[in-house]
C-alpha cells in the first residue's frame, strides 16, 4: 500500500490557501502596528493575536504534523508582500507561533485535537508575546493601568483569535476541505 506523504498536494494547497487568507490579515495588522502603538498601545496585543490564525486553522482542518508551521511560513510570506517593512518580524513570528503550536501538538503525539489543546498553545503564545512586546516596545513607561491592560489583552487576545480560528477550521472541515482522504 502506498504511503501518503505529509506534504501531499492537498496538504500544500490547503496550507497555501490558509496562508494567503491569514497572511493578508497579518499584513493589515502590520500596517496598523505603528498607529496603534502610537495612539492606543494597550490594544497592540489584540492586533498581534491575529498571527495565531494560520496554525490553528491548518491544524484543525488537516490534523497533521507540520501544518501549523507550514501555514505560518506561507502566511508570513504573504504578509511580507503586503507590509514588506515587517518581513523579518513576520518570519520570526511565524517560526515562534508555528513552533509553539507544533510543540503543543507533538506533546499529545498529534492525537488530541480537542479545543483545550489549541487553547494551551494560545496561552503560551500570549504569555510569550506579552513579555516580549512589553519590554521591546517600552511599554513599562505607560501608566500602571495601561500596563495591566496591555498584559491582560496580550495574554487573552491569542485565546480569542484561537476561538475564531477553530470556528473557521471547523467550518472548513464541515465544508469538505479534507474530503476524499487526508
Automatic annotation (TrEMBL):
<feature type="transmembrane region" description="Helical">
    <location>
        <begin position="12"/>
        <end position="33"/>
    </location>
</feature>
<dbReference type="InterPro" id="IPR017195">
    <property type="entry name" value="ABC_thiamin-permease_prd"/>
</dbReference>
<feature type="transmembrane region" description="Helical">
    <location>
        <begin position="39"/>
        <end position="58"/>
    </location>
</feature>
<keyword id="KW-1133">Transmembrane helix</keyword>
<feature type="transmembrane region" description="Helical">
    <location>
        <begin position="148"/>
        <end position="172"/>
    </location>
</feature>
<feature type="transmembrane region" description="Helical">
    <location>
        <begin position="115"/>
        <end position="136"/>
    </location>
</feature>
<keyword id="KW-0812">Transmembrane</keyword>
<protein>
    <recommendedName>
        <fullName>Acyl esterase</fullName>
    </recommendedName>
</protein>
<keyword id="KW-0472">Membrane</keyword>
<dbReference type="Pfam" id="PF09819">
    <property type="entry name" value="ABC_cobalt"/>
</dbReference>
Amino acid at each position: 500500500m502506498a504511503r501518503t506523504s505529509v506534504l501531499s498536494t492537498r496538504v500544500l494547497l490547503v496550507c497555501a490557501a490558509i496562508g494567503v487568507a491569514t497572511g493578508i490579515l497579518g499584513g493589515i495588522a502590520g500596517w496598523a502596528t505603528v498607529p496603534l502603538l502610537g495612539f492606543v498601545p494597550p490594544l497592540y496585543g489584540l492586533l498581534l493575536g491575529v498571527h495565531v490564525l494560520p496554525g490553528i486553522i491548518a491544524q484543525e482542518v488537516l490534523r497533521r504534523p507540520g501544518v501549523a508551521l507550514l501555514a505560518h511560513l506561507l502566511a508570513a510570506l504573504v504578509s511580507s508582500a503586503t507590509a514588506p517593512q515587517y518581513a523579518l518580524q513576520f518570519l520570526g513570528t511565524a517560526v515562534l507561533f508555528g513552533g509553539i503550536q507544533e510543540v503543543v501538538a507533538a506533546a499529545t503525539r498529534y492525537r488530541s485535537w480537542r479545543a483545550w489543546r489549541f487553547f494551551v498553545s494560545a496561552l503560551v503564545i500570549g504569555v510569550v508575546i506579552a513579555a516580549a512586546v512589553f519590554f521591546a516596545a517600552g511599554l513599562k513607561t505607560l501608566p500602571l493601568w495601561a500596563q495591566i491592560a496591555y498584559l491582560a489583552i496580550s495574554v487573552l487576545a491569542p485565546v480569542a483569535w484561537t476561538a475564531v480560528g477553530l470556528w473557521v477550521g471547523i467550518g472548513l472541515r464541515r465544508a469538505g476541505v479534507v474530503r476524499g482522504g487526508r
